[in-house]
């Protein structure tokens, strides 16, 4: 068989950050003024070259270009089409690097005469705010939200997709440029104008895309990949029509340029007719999240449409069972001509760590079940080879793949009969408190004796450079365990003393011993693994190393009891036990794919339940279970929400309801739109929830009227994302706004979130003011100064 008959292999997009996080270090060095723009661009260029070469050498035929970005591909698109908000004082033409980074990160204003060339656009003496950032679909990658006005104009200002194509060509590598599609771009955008829908700008945006496609064609591009993941969302008829209009136009712009339209992160579902009616050369399908689409779309799509089969999981780290994939697709693709098919990951591999070969400390068995971007690329090539030339041609690789899958399926490292037995014996009694909230709240009020508007914080205190230095010295073995403990005790004790001094009612130990709210727990649970280099971009130069949940989860030993005990031993005031909830641990990890997410979550819930009951036994009167990532786990399609919310609530309840009525369960959620999920939040039945509300001036509280949410609430009254110290009056005003929606008996007074990113110089006066505001309100209420709310 000749090479031309090989089924093409695509990767759709590769990680940008470099095996050793080269991009992060180059960016941060540039931002801090230690290196030049030329240095940064040279590092970026070398990373691109290496990534192309590797794919080329591995046998990838549809190598993506323009998947690279210095910060974010949505921001790149905004800059390319000239969507630069006016506050950046952009003068037209190609968006310069410093404006690009100001859009991404904001900018501290320069005072007059500071003399930095090229920084003239900064509003002097003011802080230039960054564009808003939000989650890219249901990943933990964050993109910069395009800001569009109703009088927005667009122009093609950057030749980045063309430049990168030519850059690869100069290396002898023919690539398929990737661009973000116009409909998804507009769908992700926002407009400050009330009632204005950015999708209305499509006719103005399309000419820019048309021009780009024509120029790509002239530069020698034959195929272009256009990403339109919006096709897996709930779309209204106007949005579907937008796809028809857009691709009708674009297909005419450069008729010989072939478009591979990439959809991913779920099934096309009710958008599938729209998708297959578009005048395209190719369509990519996510067959990991939605394997059933192969049959339906394959049957209905025009016979000359190339289908890119997303068979390898681009969202998770598991090695595939390649023979099983071949078995599954064979009956469907058997009769198809080979030039109708391409092999690809389910989505861009942007969300994958780069190379498993970097991991030298992982358990060897666990490691043999994993595949990162480099390994997944090899899997794609094997699949294509087996399909093109027959399984014998790839016999060795297929056998190894099946053996690894079989070993994983039966390994005692994955399956723990004790955990599986416990899951099987969960009953309804384990999912509810002994009494209803009304009864519990009476018992708790009597036991705790808190004043009205009790004050507390969310858990962490500043992770100062000293705290981080001590931790890293300890990790490196330069600071002994005993000395590290002594240091942490000193920090914790100082925090307790200070909280008492300023008169907070409910104290926290400060979380000085924690590296990260998930990792700290993950490292103490069985069934989770941690990588050394498995970094994944979260946003810009911020990367995370998610834990890998590979097996049944249990908690061999108490995780937080000792630190809580130490802190409580220093004070008469209640100290909250502080835990991360099961849904958050799950949503911020790579999750095993051999059991449903809900089952994996139940296991974590039982482990947290064990910790909760141990804390209670040790004497904790209040236990906070943080669920920062509860809302963000919502599925992309509304019709899937209920199933998720049902098991997520169930897991929180499993974790939290093992205690007696007198033990007060708190939870905390970061910024969330609560309106549509308020019933689920109420179902969680925490005694107290703290939420982020200060920046929205309590508008987020609209969901929590007393009738809908009867339990207690601490709406955040101090914006911890800003270094600014709120005045007493501002805090009182916010509590007064909260009183319009909730009864006094429900209200707590606390900051928006944990204080770990702040400095003590900011935290000290802010919390002093917060306590003063609560005291003043108490006095007024007790003196009958307010009409009853
Ligand atoms: N207890 C955690 C802290 O204060 C909660 C943080 C969060 O939910 N993001 O840091
Ligand atoms: Zn928070």
From TrEMBL:
CDD domains linked: CIMS_C_terminal_like, CIMS_N_terminal_like
GO biological process: one example: methylation
Catalysed reactions listed for this entry: 5-methyltetrahydropteroyltri-L-glutamate + L-homocysteine = tetrahydropteroyltri-L-glutamate + L-methionine
Stored SUPFAM superfamilies: UROD/MetE-like (SSF51726)
Binding positions (L-homocysteine): 458-460, 511, 626
Binding-site residues, 5-methyltetrahydropteroyltri-L-glutamate: 21-24, 135, 140, 588, 632
Active site per database record: 721
Functional note: Catalyzes the transfer of a methyl group from 5-methyltetrahydrofolate to homocysteine resulting in methionine formation.
Cross-referenced NCBIfam families: met_syn_B12ind (TIGR01371), PRK05222.1 (NF003556)
UniProt name for this protein: 5-methyltetrahydropteroyltriglutamate--homocysteine methyltransferase
Organism: Mesorhizobium temperatum
């Amino acid at each position: 068989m000749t090479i031309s008959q090989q089924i093409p292999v695509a990767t759709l997009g590769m990680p940008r950050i470099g095996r050793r996080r080269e991009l992060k270090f180059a960016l941060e060095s540039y931002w801090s003024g230690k290196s030049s723009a030329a240095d940064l661009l040279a590092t970026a260029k070398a990373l691109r070259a290496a990534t192309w070469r590797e794919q080329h050498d591995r046998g990838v035929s549809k190598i993506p270009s323009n998947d690279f970005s210095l910060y974010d591909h949505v921001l790149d698109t905004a800059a390319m089409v000239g969507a630069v908000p006016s506050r950046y004082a952009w003068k037209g033409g190609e968006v310069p690097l410093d404006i690009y980074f100001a859009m991404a990160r904001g900018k501290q204003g320069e005072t007059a005469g500071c003399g930095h060339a090229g920084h003239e656009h900064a509003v002097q003496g003011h802080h230039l705010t960054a564009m808003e950032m939000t989650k890219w679909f249901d990943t933990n990658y964050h993109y910069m939200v395009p800001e569009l006005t109703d009088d927005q104009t667009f122009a093609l200002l950057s030749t980045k997709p063309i430049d990168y194509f030519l850059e690869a060509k100069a290396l002898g590598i023919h690539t398929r440029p990737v661009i973000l599609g116009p409909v998804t771009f507009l769908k992700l955008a926002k407009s400050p104008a009330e009632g204005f829908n950015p999708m209305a700008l499509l006719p103005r945006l399309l000419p820019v895309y048309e021009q780009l496609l024509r120029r790509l064609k002239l530069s020698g591009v034959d195929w272009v990949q256009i990403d339109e993941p919006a096709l897996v969302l709930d779309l209204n008829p106007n949005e579907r029509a937008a796809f028809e209009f857009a691709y009708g136009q674009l297909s005419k712009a450069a008729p010989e340029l072939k478009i591979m339209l990439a959809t991913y992160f779920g099934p096309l579902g009710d958008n599938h007719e729209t998708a297959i009616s578009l005048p395209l050369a190719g369509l990519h399908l996510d067959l990991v999240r939605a394997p059933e689409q192969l049959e339906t779309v394959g049957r209905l799509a025009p016979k000359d449409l190339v289908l890119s089969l997303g068979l390898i999981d681009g969202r998770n780290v598991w090695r595939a069972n390649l023979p099983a994939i071949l078995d599954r697709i064979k009956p469907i693709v058997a009769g198809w001509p080979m030039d109708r098919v391409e092999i690809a990951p389910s989505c861009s591999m942007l969300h994958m760590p780069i190379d498993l070969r970097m991991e030298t400390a992982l358990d060897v068995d666990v490691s043999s079940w994993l595949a990162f971007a480099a390994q997944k690329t090899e899997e794609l090539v094997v699949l294509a080879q087996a399909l093109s030339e027959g399984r014998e041609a790839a016999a060795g690789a297929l056998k190894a793949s099946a053996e690894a899958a079989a070993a994983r399926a039966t390994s005692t490292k994955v399956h723990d009969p004790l955990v599986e037995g416990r899951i099987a014996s969960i009953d309804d009694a384990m999912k509810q408190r002994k009494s209803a909230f009304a009864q519990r709240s009476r018992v708790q009020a009597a036991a705790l004796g808190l004043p009205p508007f009790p004050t507390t914080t969310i858990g962490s205190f500043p992770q100062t450079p000293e705290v981080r230095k001590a931790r890293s010295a300890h990790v490196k073995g330069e600071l002994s365990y005993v000395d590290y403990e002594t240091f942490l005790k000193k920090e914790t004790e100082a925090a307790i003393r200070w909280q008492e001094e300023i008169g907070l009612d409910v104290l926290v130990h400060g979380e000085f011993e924690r590296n990260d709210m998930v990792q700290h727990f993950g490292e103490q649970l069985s069934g989770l693994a941690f990588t050394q280099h498995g970094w994944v971009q979260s946003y810009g130069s911020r990367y995370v190393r998610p834990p890998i949940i590979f097996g049944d989860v249990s908690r061999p030993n108490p995780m937080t009891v000792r630190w809580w005990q130490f802190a409580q031993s220093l004070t008469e005031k209640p100290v909250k036990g502080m835990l991360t909830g099961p849904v958050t641990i799950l949503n911020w990890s790579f999750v095993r794919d051999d059991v449903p997410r809900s089952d994996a979550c139940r296991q974590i819930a039982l482990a947290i339940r064990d910790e909760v009951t141990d804390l209670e036994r040790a004497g904790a009167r209040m236990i906070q279970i943080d669920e920062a990532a509860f809302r963000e786990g919502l599925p992309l399609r509304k019709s899937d929400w209920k199933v998720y919310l049902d098991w997520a609530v169930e897991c929180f309840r499993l974790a939290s309801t093992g205690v007696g009525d007198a033990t007060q369960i708190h939870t905390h959620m970061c910024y969330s739109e609560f309106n549509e999920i308020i019933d689920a939040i109420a179902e969680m039945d925490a005694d107290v929830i703290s939420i982020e509300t200060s920046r929205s001036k309590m508008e987020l509280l609209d969901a929590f009227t007393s009738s809908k949410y009867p339990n207690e609430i601490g709406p955040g009254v101090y914006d911890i994302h800003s270094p600014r110290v709120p005045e007493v009056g501002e805090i009182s005003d916010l509590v007064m706004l909260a009183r319009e929606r909730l009864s006094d008996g429900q209200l707590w007074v606390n900051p928006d979130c944990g204080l770990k990113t702040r400095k003590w110089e900011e935290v000290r006066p802010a919390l002093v003011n917060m306590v003063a505001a609560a005291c003043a309100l108490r006095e007024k209420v007790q003196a009958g100064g307010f009409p009853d709310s």
